[in-house]
Protein backbone atom coordinates (compact mmCIF):
# COMPACT_ATOMS: atom_id res chain seq x y z
CA UNK A 1 0.00 0.00 0.00
CA UNK A 2 1.67 3.26 -1.13
CA UNK A 3 -0.37 5.49 1.22
CA UNK A 4 1.85 6.58 4.10
CA UNK A 5 -0.46 9.01 5.91
CA UNK A 6 -4.00 10.39 6.02
CA UNK A 7 -4.66 13.54 8.02
CA UNK A 8 -8.01 15.28 8.53
CA UNK A 9 -8.10 18.87 9.78
CA UNK A 10 -11.64 19.73 10.82
CA UNK A 11 -10.74 23.37 11.49
CA UNK A 12 -9.16 23.91 8.07
CA UNK A 13 -11.76 21.63 6.42
CA UNK A 14 -9.07 19.58 4.67
CA UNK A 15 -8.00 15.98 4.24
CA UNK A 16 -4.42 15.26 3.17
CA UNK A 17 -3.30 11.92 1.77
CA UNK A 18 0.41 11.21 1.18
CA UNK A 19 1.53 8.27 -0.97
CA UNK A 20 5.03 7.19 -2.03
CA UNK A 21 5.91 5.29 -5.20
CA UNK A 22 9.13 3.63 -6.42
CA UNK A 23 9.07 5.34 -9.83
CA UNK A 24 10.24 8.72 -11.19
CA UNK A 25 7.86 11.68 -11.01
CA UNK A 26 7.32 11.71 -14.77
CA UNK A 27 6.06 8.11 -14.67
CA UNK A 28 3.61 8.88 -11.87
CA UNK A 29 2.46 12.07 -13.60
CA UNK A 30 1.79 10.21 -16.85
CA UNK A 31 -0.40 7.73 -14.98
CA UNK A 32 -2.69 10.63 -14.08
CA UNK A 33 -2.40 12.38 -17.47
CA UNK A 34 -3.27 9.33 -19.60
CA UNK A 35 -6.97 8.28 -19.52
CA UNK A 36 -6.00 4.69 -20.36
CA UNK A 37 -3.95 4.57 -17.17
CA UNK A 38 -5.95 6.63 -14.69
CA UNK A 39 -9.08 4.59 -15.31
CA UNK A 40 -7.20 1.48 -14.17
CA UNK A 41 -6.91 2.83 -10.63
CA UNK A 42 -9.22 5.79 -10.11
CA UNK A 43 -12.21 3.71 -9.09
CA UNK A 44 -11.81 1.68 -5.88
CA UNK A 45 -11.47 -2.11 -6.26
CA UNK A 46 -14.63 -3.51 -7.80
CA UNK A 47 -15.62 -0.10 -9.23
CA UNK A 48 -13.49 0.45 -12.36
CA UNK A 49 -13.70 3.86 -14.01
CA UNK A 50 -14.19 4.73 -17.65
CA UNK A 51 -13.01 8.20 -18.71
CA UNK A 52 -14.90 9.52 -21.71
CA UNK A 53 -13.03 12.83 -21.49
CA UNK A 54 -9.71 13.69 -19.88
CA UNK A 55 -8.33 17.11 -20.74
CA UNK A 56 -5.51 17.90 -18.30
CA UNK A 57 -5.08 21.63 -18.94
CA UNK A 58 -6.36 24.83 -17.34
CA UNK A 59 -9.99 25.17 -18.38
CA UNK A 60 -10.08 21.49 -19.32
CA UNK A 61 -12.43 18.87 -17.97
CA UNK A 62 -12.56 15.17 -17.20
CA UNK A 63 -15.70 13.06 -17.18
CA UNK A 64 -15.89 9.49 -15.93
CA UNK A 65 -18.24 6.78 -14.75
CA UNK A 66 -17.42 4.09 -12.18
CA UNK A 67 -19.28 0.80 -12.58
CA UNK A 68 -19.95 -1.46 -9.60
CA UNK A 69 -20.03 -5.26 -9.47
CA UNK A 70 -23.81 -5.36 -9.92
CA UNK A 71 -23.80 -2.82 -12.73
CA UNK A 72 -24.29 0.19 -10.44
CA UNK A 73 -22.99 3.43 -11.95
CA UNK A 74 -21.54 6.49 -10.25
CA UNK A 75 -20.42 9.44 -12.36
CA UNK A 76 -18.02 12.26 -11.64
CA UNK A 77 -16.14 15.14 -13.21
CA UNK A 78 -13.04 17.27 -12.74
CA UNK A 79 -12.71 20.90 -13.79
CA UNK A 80 -9.02 21.79 -14.06
CA UNK A 81 -8.35 25.06 -12.23
CA UNK A 82 -4.54 25.05 -12.35
CA UNK A 83 -1.91 22.85 -14.00
CA UNK A 84 1.87 22.92 -13.57
CA UNK A 85 2.98 20.09 -15.87
CA UNK A 86 4.95 17.41 -14.09
CA UNK A 87 4.49 19.08 -10.71
CA UNK A 88 0.87 19.73 -9.72
CA UNK A 89 -2.72 20.19 -10.78
CA UNK A 90 -5.83 21.50 -9.06
CA UNK A 91 -9.38 20.46 -9.83
CA UNK A 92 -12.95 21.07 -8.85
CA UNK A 93 -14.19 17.54 -8.16
CA UNK A 94 -17.89 16.73 -8.26
CA UNK A 95 -20.54 14.13 -8.92
CA UNK A 96 -22.77 13.80 -11.97
CA UNK A 97 -26.33 12.66 -12.54
CA UNK A 98 -27.08 9.68 -14.82
CA UNK A 99 -27.29 12.05 -17.82
CA UNK A 100 -23.80 13.42 -17.11
CA UNK A 101 -24.81 16.80 -15.68
CA UNK A 102 -23.28 18.06 -12.38
CA UNK A 103 -25.30 16.75 -9.45
CA UNK A 104 -26.41 19.82 -7.49
CA UNK A 105 -27.66 17.68 -4.61
CA UNK A 106 -24.16 16.43 -3.75
CA UNK A 107 -21.22 18.63 -2.67
CA UNK A 108 -18.24 19.37 -4.85
CA UNK A 109 -14.74 19.92 -3.48
CA UNK A 110 -11.40 21.37 -4.47
CA UNK A 111 -8.49 18.95 -4.74
CA UNK A 112 -4.78 19.72 -5.22
CA UNK A 113 -2.35 17.03 -6.41
CA UNK A 114 1.35 17.73 -5.79
CA UNK A 115 4.07 15.50 -7.30
CA UNK A 116 7.65 15.62 -6.00
CA UNK A 117 10.79 13.47 -6.29
CA UNK A 118 12.13 11.48 -3.35
CA UNK A 119 15.29 9.48 -2.74
CA UNK A 120 13.41 6.29 -3.64
CA UNK A 121 11.10 7.56 -6.37
CA UNK A 122 8.24 10.02 -6.07
CA UNK A 123 5.63 11.29 -3.65
CA UNK A 124 2.05 12.34 -4.36
CA UNK A 125 0.33 14.60 -1.85
CA UNK A 126 -3.41 14.95 -2.39
CA UNK A 127 -5.11 17.69 -0.40
CA UNK A 128 -8.89 18.02 -0.47
CA UNK A 129 -10.61 21.27 0.54
CA UNK A 130 -14.24 20.90 1.63
CA UNK A 131 -16.81 23.74 1.42
CA UNK A 132 -18.11 23.23 4.98
CA UNK A 133 -17.84 20.93 7.96
CA UNK A 134 -21.22 19.43 7.14
CA UNK A 135 -20.16 18.57 3.60
CA UNK A 136 -16.84 17.17 4.87
CA UNK A 137 -18.70 14.89 7.24
CA UNK A 138 -21.20 13.94 4.51
CA UNK A 139 -18.46 12.93 2.07
CA UNK A 140 -16.50 11.02 4.68
CA UNK A 141 -19.69 9.17 5.65
CA UNK A 142 -20.06 8.22 1.97
CA UNK A 143 -16.66 6.47 2.14
CA UNK A 144 -14.49 9.08 0.45
CA UNK A 145 -11.41 8.38 2.59
CA UNK A 146 -11.63 4.62 2.10
CA UNK A 147 -12.33 4.97 -1.61
CA UNK A 148 -9.42 7.34 -2.21
CA UNK A 149 -6.88 5.25 -0.30
CA UNK A 150 -8.14 2.03 -1.93
CA UNK A 151 -7.82 3.59 -5.38
CA UNK A 152 -4.26 4.70 -4.65
CA UNK A 153 -3.48 1.17 -3.61
CA UNK A 154 -3.92 0.21 -7.27
CA UNK A 155 -1.47 2.79 -8.66
CA UNK A 156 1.65 0.69 -8.03
CA UNK A 157 0.61 -1.96 -10.55
CA UNK A 158 -0.18 0.67 -13.20
CA UNK A 159 3.09 2.63 -12.92
CA UNK A 160 5.06 -0.65 -12.95
CA UNK A 161 3.44 -1.62 -16.25
CA UNK A 162 5.75 0.03 -18.77
CA UNK A 163 4.96 -2.31 -21.66
CA UNK A 164 1.25 -1.47 -22.00
CA UNK A 165 1.82 2.26 -22.42
CA UNK A 166 5.19 2.45 -24.19
CA UNK A 167 5.68 5.33 -26.62
CA UNK A 168 6.49 2.98 -29.52
CA UNK A 169 3.18 1.09 -29.46
CA UNK A 170 0.86 1.37 -32.49
CA UNK A 171 -2.56 3.02 -32.39
CA UNK A 172 -5.10 0.98 -30.46
CA UNK A 173 -8.87 1.20 -30.00
CA UNK A 174 -10.86 0.74 -26.80
CA UNK A 175 -14.65 0.54 -26.63
CA UNK A 176 -15.98 2.99 -24.04
CA UNK A 177 -19.67 2.19 -24.26
CA UNK A 178 -22.38 1.21 -26.69
CA UNK A 179 -21.57 3.95 -29.19
CA UNK A 180 -18.09 5.24 -28.34
CA UNK A 181 -14.56 4.16 -29.17
CA UNK A 182 -11.28 5.70 -28.04
CA UNK A 183 -8.21 5.50 -30.29
CA UNK A 184 -4.92 6.28 -28.53
CA UNK A 185 -1.32 6.62 -29.60
CA UNK A 186 1.80 8.44 -28.40
CA UNK A 187 3.12 10.60 -31.23
CA UNK A 188 6.84 11.23 -30.83
CA UNK A 189 6.79 15.01 -31.14
CA UNK A 190 5.74 18.08 -29.10
CA UNK A 191 2.09 19.04 -28.71
CA UNK A 192 2.25 22.22 -30.81
CA UNK A 193 3.95 20.43 -33.70
CA UNK A 194 1.39 17.60 -33.63
CA UNK A 195 -1.43 20.15 -33.54
CA UNK A 196 0.02 22.04 -36.49
CA UNK A 197 0.33 18.79 -38.45
CA UNK A 198 -3.44 18.31 -37.99
CA UNK A 199 -4.33 21.84 -39.09
CA UNK A 200 -1.99 22.91 -41.90
CA UNK A 201 -3.19 21.59 -45.30
CA UNK A 202 0.34 21.24 -46.69
CA UNK A 203 1.28 19.00 -43.76
CA UNK A 204 -1.98 17.03 -43.72
CA UNK A 205 -1.48 16.11 -47.37
CA UNK A 206 1.88 14.55 -46.48
CA UNK A 207 0.73 12.15 -43.78
CA UNK A 208 -3.05 11.67 -43.45
CA UNK A 209 -3.23 9.21 -46.33
CA UNK A 210 -3.84 5.80 -44.81
CA UNK A 211 -2.28 2.98 -46.88
CA UNK A 212 0.37 3.74 -49.48
CA UNK A 213 -0.88 4.63 -52.95
CA UNK A 214 -3.31 7.40 -52.02
CA UNK A 215 -3.26 11.19 -52.23
CA UNK A 216 -5.45 13.97 -50.77
CA UNK A 217 -6.48 16.33 -53.59
CA UNK A 218 -8.98 18.20 -51.37
CA UNK A 219 -7.97 19.42 -47.91
CA UNK A 220 -10.10 22.24 -46.51
CA UNK A 221 -9.43 22.90 -42.80
CA UNK A 222 -11.94 24.47 -40.40
CA UNK A 223 -10.21 27.29 -38.54
CA UNK A 224 -13.04 28.75 -36.41
CA UNK A 225 -15.96 27.23 -34.53
CA UNK A 226 -18.85 26.89 -36.95
CA UNK A 227 -16.58 26.44 -39.97
CA UNK A 228 -16.77 23.30 -42.12
CA UNK A 229 -13.92 21.05 -43.18
CA UNK A 230 -13.70 18.75 -46.19
CA UNK A 231 -11.10 16.09 -46.97
CA UNK A 232 -11.09 13.89 -50.08
CA UNK A 233 -8.74 11.08 -51.10
CA UNK A 234 -8.15 9.20 -54.32
CA UNK A 235 -5.83 6.48 -55.56
CA UNK A 236 -2.61 7.54 -57.23
CA UNK A 237 -3.45 7.78 -60.89
CA UNK A 238 -7.14 8.44 -60.16
CA UNK A 239 -10.14 6.41 -59.02
CA UNK A 240 -11.59 5.31 -55.73
CA UNK A 241 -12.45 8.86 -54.67
CA UNK A 242 -14.08 9.31 -51.26
CA UNK A 243 -14.07 11.88 -48.48
CA UNK A 244 -15.46 13.28 -45.26
CA UNK A 245 -16.93 16.59 -44.24
CA UNK A 246 -18.05 18.09 -40.96
CA UNK A 247 -18.25 21.13 -38.69
CA UNK A 248 -15.88 22.40 -36.01
CA UNK A 249 -17.89 22.48 -32.75
CA UNK A 250 -15.21 23.31 -30.15
CA UNK A 251 -11.57 24.38 -30.38
CA UNK A 252 -8.91 24.99 -27.73
CA UNK A 253 -5.54 25.08 -29.55
CA UNK A 254 -3.19 23.34 -29.28
CA UNK A 255 -4.75 20.64 -27.14
CA UNK A 256 -8.38 19.89 -27.99
CA UNK A 257 -11.07 20.14 -30.65
CA UNK A 258 -14.48 18.61 -31.32
CA UNK A 259 -15.89 18.09 -34.81
CA UNK A 260 -18.73 16.33 -36.51
CA UNK A 261 -17.86 13.95 -39.34
CA UNK A 262 -19.91 12.38 -42.12
CA UNK A 263 -18.84 10.50 -45.22
CA UNK A 264 -19.58 12.57 -48.30
CA UNK A 265 -22.67 11.31 -50.11
CA UNK A 266 -24.22 9.57 -47.09
CA UNK A 267 -27.26 10.51 -45.03
CA UNK A 268 -28.13 10.16 -41.37
CA UNK A 269 -26.59 11.47 -38.14
CA UNK A 270 -22.92 12.37 -38.14
CA UNK A 271 -20.28 10.97 -35.83
CA UNK A 272 -18.67 13.30 -33.29
CA UNK A 273 -14.87 13.29 -32.94
CA UNK A 274 -13.13 14.65 -29.85
CA UNK A 275 -9.35 15.04 -30.29
CA UNK A 276 -7.17 15.64 -27.22
CA UNK A 277 -3.39 16.14 -27.23
CA UNK A 278 -1.56 15.68 -23.93
CA UNK A 279 2.20 16.01 -23.28
CA UNK A 280 3.65 12.80 -21.82
CA UNK A 281 7.07 11.28 -21.45
CA UNK A 282 8.17 10.38 -24.98
CA UNK A 283 5.99 12.82 -26.91
CA UNK A 284 2.31 13.67 -27.24
CA UNK A 285 -0.51 11.35 -26.26
CA UNK A 286 -3.13 11.61 -29.01
CA UNK A 287 -6.58 10.56 -27.87
CA UNK A 288 -9.50 10.47 -30.29
CA UNK A 289 -12.92 9.65 -28.82
CA UNK A 290 -15.49 8.98 -31.55
CA UNK A 291 -19.20 8.88 -30.73
CA UNK A 292 -21.29 7.12 -33.39
CA UNK A 293 -25.07 7.30 -33.88
CA UNK A 294 -25.45 3.67 -32.79
CA UNK A 295 -23.55 0.48 -32.02
CA UNK A 296 -24.06 -0.98 -35.49
CA UNK A 297 -22.45 2.01 -37.16
CA UNK A 298 -19.53 1.95 -34.76
CA UNK A 299 -18.85 -1.73 -35.32
CA UNK A 300 -19.20 -1.42 -39.09
CA UNK A 301 -16.65 1.42 -39.20
CA UNK A 302 -14.17 -0.44 -37.00
CA UNK A 303 -14.53 -3.52 -39.22
CA UNK A 304 -13.22 -1.54 -42.20
CA UNK A 305 -9.74 -1.52 -40.66
CA UNK A 306 -10.00 2.10 -39.58
CA UNK A 307 -7.47 1.80 -36.75
CA UNK A 308 -4.88 0.08 -38.98
CA UNK A 309 -5.24 2.90 -41.49
CA UNK A 310 -4.82 5.48 -38.72
CA UNK A 311 -1.66 3.75 -37.52
CA UNK A 312 -0.19 3.84 -41.03
CA UNK A 313 -0.89 7.58 -41.15
CA UNK A 314 0.54 8.24 -37.68
CA UNK A 315 3.71 6.32 -38.51
CA UNK A 316 4.03 8.45 -41.68
CA UNK A 317 3.45 11.59 -39.57
CA UNK A 318 6.39 10.69 -37.35
CA UNK A 319 8.67 9.62 -40.19
CA UNK A 320 7.95 12.30 -42.78
CA UNK A 321 6.72 15.35 -40.86
CA UNK A 322 8.06 15.25 -37.30
CA UNK A 323 11.51 13.74 -37.95
CA UNK A 324 14.07 16.40 -38.94
CA UNK A 325 15.50 15.93 -42.41
TrEMBL record:
Domain of life: Bacteria
Short name of one Pfam family: AHSA1
Annotated ranges, domain Activator of Hsp90 ATPase homologue 1/2-like C-terminal: 23-159, 190-320
Family: Belongs to the AHA1 family.
Protein name in the entry: Uncharacterized conserved protein YndB, AHSA1/START domain
Lineage summary: Bacteria, Bacillati, Actinomycetota, Actinomycetes, Micrococcales
